[in-house]
Amino acid sequence: MQYLKIEPQMQRSASDSGPLCGLPEVVSCSVNKTRGMFEFQFDPQSAGSYLHLSKNNSKVTKGKMQKCHSLPDLITAKPKTNSSNAYTILGNCAISEGKHYWEIQTGDGSFTMGVAYRSVRRDKDIGWTKKSWGLGKQKWIPSILHDSVFKALAQGEQTEVRISACPERIGVHLDYDLGSVTFTDPATQEVIHTFNVKFEEPVVPAFSLYKGSLSICSD
């Protein structure tokens, strides 16, 4: 796996306070830092009440609200209209060093995907807190010609991003030591967006799903 060399675009520091997700210790992952996919699963204990997982926890689908017995009251309580904590889920493997890469099959849904600290606030979507960074796609945002519209979300700020075509998969290149998170179209290697972050805690893959499904790609 070749990792991209990206010039810094945006400096982000990290400090936040607020309700925590109350996750257990995530599993330790042994990963080849120079090639291959970063292996993780969706963590069912972090799943919002509208999210349904496949048996092997490799696919998450937006569905009807369900009771989440394993989650704290912040998440299990009946959400208010458009409450965001019901749509967020984290990966079960933390990263604290090295270079890592994973791909997500996005389909035709609406989502935000990126990385977050394990202590991220759960009453906001990914990218709308100082402890998470994400790339968002919302199906109801109109396209202009053949462009695809995304939102780069960090620390509660958003930046519009346009690329030539909407990819079927999105690749995430994380260099923890350098402090960069780059999103690409794996089919063309087109760079969608890069965040430059001074990480202060281990991070996990993080997602907010509003419509459709997301699947972790294994090849």
Automatic annotation (TrEMBL):
Gene: FSD1
InterPro entries for this protein: B30.2/SPRY, B30.2/SPRY_sf, Butyrophylin_SPRY, ConA-like_dom_sf, E3_ligase_FN3/SPRY, SPRY_dom
Pfam families: SPRY
Origin superkingdom: Eukaryota
Chain ranges of the B30.2/SPRY domain: 19-219
Organism, as annotated: Branchiostoma lanceolatum (Common lancelet)
SUPFAM superfamilies: Concanavalin A-like lectins/glucanases
Protein name per its UniProtKB record: FSD1 protein
PANTHER family listed in its UniProt record: E3 UBIQUITIN-PROTEIN LIGASE MIDLINE-1-LIKE ISOFORM X1, E3 UBIQUITIN-PROTEIN LIGASE TRIM36-RELATED
Gene3D superfamilies according to UniProt: 2.60.120.920
SMART domains according to UniProt: SPRY
